[in-house]
Amino acid sequence: MLFQVGGQGVRPTFFEMAAAQQLPASLRAALTYSIGVLALRRPILHKVLDYDDEFFALLMLVLETHSLRTTEASFSESLYGLRRKAVNIKLSKENPRTESGHSGLKKHQKALSVAFMVVLPYFKSKLHSIYNREREATLQASLWGPSDVRIDDSDYFDSGASHVPAGSLSTNASLWARVRKRIEAFIGDFYPWIHAGNEGLTFAYQLLYLLDATGFYSPGLHVLGIHVCRATGQELMDTSSRISKIRSRERERLRGPPWLKALQRVLLSCMYTTLDYAQTGLIAAVFFFKMMEWWYQSAEERMSAPTVYPPPPPPPPPKVAEEGIPLPPDRTICPLCSQKRVNPSVVAVSGFVFCYPCVFRYVSQYKRCPVTLMPTTVDQIRRLFHDM
User: Fold this and answer.
1) Which of 32, 123, 257, 356 has the greatest CB tally within 10 Å of its CB?
2) pLDDT 10s digits, 57-110
3) Per-residue CA distances from 260 to 190, 248, 269, 270, 272 (Å)
4) Which pTM value belongs to this model?
5) Which domains does the chain have, with CATH numbers?
């Protein structure tokens, strides 16, 4: 569903917006996986995984700030050729209805966009982790009792030491620890409602966006007064010239002796090159992560799947001994009594079938198979039930 927004660009489809919103999560998963693989050989990288929220927030802060500054779009939106434009509500004197137009983003809108895309998700992840800890603590308390009244192993075995009463733990705790515990308990109680309200409001906006009832894909864009539109060809052509002007002004602002200016130019060039190729490199990292995820998932499925082998061929039939009882042409006839078999039973060592009374008497007397003369006992006679 496409429609013109204010005459300045076409509104992107719902699926384009959803893909742009999902890209940061895929990027984070790719970076976490890559760092985890590298940490197998470099244990020092485990410290990065301990602060993965801060590391990813800092990375996205740099990328989003640079992208909004140069292209007036977020990092993921610029990949799909989208641009953010401020909504200007005007009241025409001739027409009492409101008319909407678009203009470039202002500085405060760019700053608030970064806050909505980086800062708020960071705090949301922290609140989610605190809620998970509180939920686990509540579950453990329901199973084992509160942690402050549990008997420690060292207290149990150390009978000669003086034990501190459980009530004195909270008395000796610092004020900050008590405040922090109350804040975490408050978050554990109210975070589900906040999370449900946010998810419900976001879903409502996405549903209205899908039905062409609103031009805002999320409540954050509505609060900021920003529409996301597909960039025109002229805007895409002007992006490179805008970046060149920004970088030229930054080079002109360099101050200091010649050697310091040269060093600053080298550092700026390195930073520009890194930012220019960061988009391509990160997308390649996401693609590589997805490929490796598919590879390892298919390998695990192959390893966990039961191996199906073809059925083994039947063993060759045992040879009839020269002095043994010959087999009748009709396979339903007992070789011993030459009558129709009753209570068919097989001799395990040879596989031939006889009447149970006949073969039982013969094996009890001769201790061998009647046909092959192979040694056997009555314990190796098996009853067959295929004819029942």
Assistant:
1) 356
2) 888 888 888 888 878 888 888 888 888 888 865 544 555 444 456 667 888 888
3) 54, 17, 14, 15, 18
4) 0.57
5) 1-88+104-141+185-253 (no CATH), 255-302 (no CATH), 320-387 (3.30.40.10)
